[in-house]
UniProtKB/TrEMBL annotation:
Record-annotated CRISPR type III-associated protein domain positions: 71-226
Record's keyword terms, sorted: Antiviral defense
Domain of life: Archaea
Organism per entry: Methanothermobacter thermautotrophicus (strain ATCC 29096 / DSM 1053 / JCM 10044 / NBRC 100330 / Delta H) (Methanobacterium thermoautotrophicum)
Entries under InterPro entries matching the protein: RAMP_III_fam
Name the record gives this protein: CRISPR type III-associated protein domain-containing protein
Pfam families documented for this protein: RAMPs
Gene Ontology biological-process entries: defense response to virus
Amino acid sequence: MNLDGVYDFYLHEKEGGIEEPKRKIMDAVAGDHKDDFKTFYPSPDDLNYLPMNSVLIGFQFTLKKPYTSRGESKFSENLIVRDQFTGLCMVRPSTWKGNLRFAATKLMGPKNSIIIRLFGSNPDSEDMIKGRLYFFPTFFKEGAENDVITPLKRETRTPARGPIPLEVMKPGTKGDFYLLYVPYLGNENFGDEIKEDLKLIAEALKLMFYTYGFSAKRTSGFGVIEKQLEGKLWMRGGVSKNFSNLHELSEILDGYGYEQH
């Protein structure tokens, strides 16, 4: 028996709607564990236990446009996804992977070999290949706010239907993004593969964060970030470099000197 479904139904019937009471409960939980989310983030020291040429990218971004996502409520899909442990609004690792892959395919096409190396093969593929990229959740310490959007018809730019209420993370909200690159051994051109991988990662990050966004409403411009950020790139052996925007990160990755095996 699905107790979560029964619990949601009880709140829906008891309170006349699930959104407000469930949000209050999750916010109360977040107050007890609001700092525990840091345990989900990777440590630069972990690179010493990973294969050569592994790279960790981390930066704090600021939303330029609102962010929203589709929660798991049985009665509304317009609630932002929340972590069940901390109660904080979050971006799932799978969401990051899907959006970055979308940006990368816009640059290279879906069947490009670099795409498959980085993100892995598609579920329906005969050859199961694990990708070289590892994603981590992003947690927002600030609470979500209520907003309303009105979908427009593309042809006439007139309302397609009535206003839709939804939860959003407002512009100015900060979040932390982490991406780990772990290159498994390739062919004799392994060094060239790493250079190709890192170049595409840099370009895809710029396209996702600055142009397409990473929100469920990205076609409306949701989920785009400010260009300035606080970032750091770590390599094996304790080497690290700071960057203040994704264009600087692109230059760092473009000049990356890989270790010979």
